[in-house]
Specification:
transcription regulation (chains A, B, C, D), homotetramer, Tetracycline Repressor, domain 2, DNA-binding, Arc Repressor Mutant, subunit A, HTH-type_TetR-like_transc_reg (chains A, B, C, D), DNA-binding transcription factor activity (chains A, B, C, D)
Chain lengths: 200, 200, 200, 200
DNA sequence: ACTTAATCGAGACGGTACGTCTTGTCTTGAG
DNA sequence: CTCAAGACAAGACGTACCGTCTCGATTAAGT
């Protein structure tokens, strides 16, 4: 079995061109022809290695995401502070038009391409969410999170509102918002009494 | 000032054709030419009245949403039960491929068209969210929700995770999920003690 | 039987607008919509009274041609001089881009519309050619034209080359050309011997 | 310098389809879309290589005209007979609706497209007219044509009337007409006396 | 080094949809 | 009923991309 004689130089040029063009035009206006032209590459070279422009963007994102280890959250012992750090960073990323352009792009394609959606979920989303989940697990061990809380649901409670607000442009994405969200979510996870008893 | 002499018959045929086609093909495969052909209408008649196919879908959705009054939530006095009713319905809608097709479509276009996003937010999203917020406000008056809770944020806590899970296909959308989400969110809103004191 | 309640004001405005636009754009770019807009007239008013834009141009030309009597040739007794006068005028008309624009336009339409062709022939062309034929007949009576010459053919001998050269852009249309043509044609018509015997 | 990698198969299919369609519909009804569809070719392939449908027709005509050498006239020594042969053929071509359809088409476009007109003149018309002119030159050498006759003008004297009559539908195009025309034109060219003296 | 087969840049190809334009008909409301 | 205005169904325009294909030229193994 011979390794594919793929031109690494072309591969990098294509990914770079794709990200470049994304920052200049909207995603639907991003064409494979334009990527090929910008990268100085034949169209076939793109079609040979990627199924769609969504896949190109995905690879560009994964490529620039760096090592998976980088993703681990800090654990200062103060759960609230650590979550604030993460959610502030997330909010900042979504608020920055430059950074959110690629997220927007990949999200669009994801909505109409199940295969791509799966890959985005496994390669980009899950690692991030898992890192937060592990931090929550550590918090539970430290008695800062109620025993019965479903950690996956708790993670969604933290990130869902941000996606919702970003996606639907339903309000500003600020640090204060991130902090309020952390406070409210932590109230949901708080230990000290039965959560179900708390409601009438 | 003369009213535009618009043909209501054509308008209805176009909206119906758009929804029909959406249920047959994916959104990117939905073309204005196909809508015109199916509706038995000239292309120009679509371009004359709508800026994009996203706008056509939006109008179709708004048209079929019916009266704004229909949107008010039931108030049985049992907040948890009422929220479960709403979130179960929401989850069911997102889980149904037929029903979520239009939502998916409008969401795609929304990501690349700020003007459309604004209209979707104001005409479709806000009325729904407001209805839930008003139910929460009633709950607060009844002492079932903590005084200090930001009701808008609370609403996002309920719907954000669902959008997040649907959008990123990060898990199944079931009744049990809706119920768990209601429980966790209500824990966050629960009255009876200072929420901030509850955390170390 | 009531006379058609036709608006003379609109009719004139349409014909004027058509000629105006013809001098500004090429004939294929002349649209009925533009004529209607320029004339401040509804499109239907044009379609009501004319079958095609060719018919509009034809009526404009006939309208501006004036009385049929104007067409009679001068008869100074000098046939050659009189023919030079006519052919020089004809050549000048074809050479002038402004004047030949309408001729070009009507010719185009004529090539694809038999009915229009017939009307152009009868209302515009035949009267002109007849005037020349009558001058030739007078010349024959005066002994300047051979008895056996078919006068219709002779007329074509005078105008055919001009049309040919204009139509196919096969050379300049100058006074000298007109004069040479008159000389050559008159040689063909010259009396004094049997024409057929003249050739070996 | 690499030769353009043009698909000869497509080129032939396009020219054939254009001629086919021309014989079925009128020229203004001939659309590029229809040519592309009939030829089994993308529209862009036509637009890539031709500026207009007129240019397509021109190339089809030039392509089918064959070798330029084919154009040389017979020289039996009998000038009148040879010219009759040519003019009878010309008249027959114009009289045949099938054959004159393409001529009509190219003529229409020629009237509104100077560049096309030039190419038609140089590639189609001039070679034909030159062939006749050379026959006349041979006739002059043989003493059958007057020394002072401008041969280009003489050629126009032969073909101009035919174009005129065809273009303006000003009479039937028959063999008798061709013969009469040859006789009259030869009278104009006849040697044996000063042409100018012949007229009073 | 030589061979050889896949990959490369380039871009033509058959298609499809775009958004615009014009056609000829139809509809509305003012005069 | 005619008119100006302009919406309508129809469909061609010329352009932009799609994804496939064909062309030499380059390149990197495996001999």
């Amino acid at each position: 079995m011979t390794a594919p004689r793929r031109n690494e130089r072309s591969r990098r040029a294509i990914l770079a061109a794709a990200l470049e063009l994304l920052s200049e035009t909207s995603y639907p206006d991003l064409t494979i022809e334009a990527i090929a032209a910008r990268a100085g590459v034949g169209k076939q070279t793109i079609y040979r290695w990627w199924r769609s422009k969504g896949m190109v963007i995905l690879e560009a994102l994964v490529d620039s995401a760096g090592e998976p280890g980088d993703m681990a959250l800090p654990d200062t012992g103060d759960l609230r502070a650590d979550l604030r750090t993460v959610l502030r960073a997330t909010v900042a990323e979504f608020a920055d038009p430059r950074l959110s352009a690629t997220t927007r792009a990949i999200t669009i394609e994801t909505l109409a391409d199940d295969d791509l959606a799966e890959q985005v979920r496994d390669q980009l989303l899950r690692p991030q969410l898992s890192a937060v989940r592990e931090r929550l697990r550590a918090g539970r061990r430290a008695g800062q999170v109620h025993e019965s809380v479903d950690l996956d649901l708790a993670v969604e409670l933290l990130f869902g509102p941000i996606y919702h607000r970003w996606l639907l442009r339903n309000g500003p994405l600020t640090e204060a918002y991130a902090d309020d969200l952390v406070d409210l979510a932590m109230a949901a996870m708080a230990p000290g009494r039965s959560r179900l008893e708390a409601a009438p």
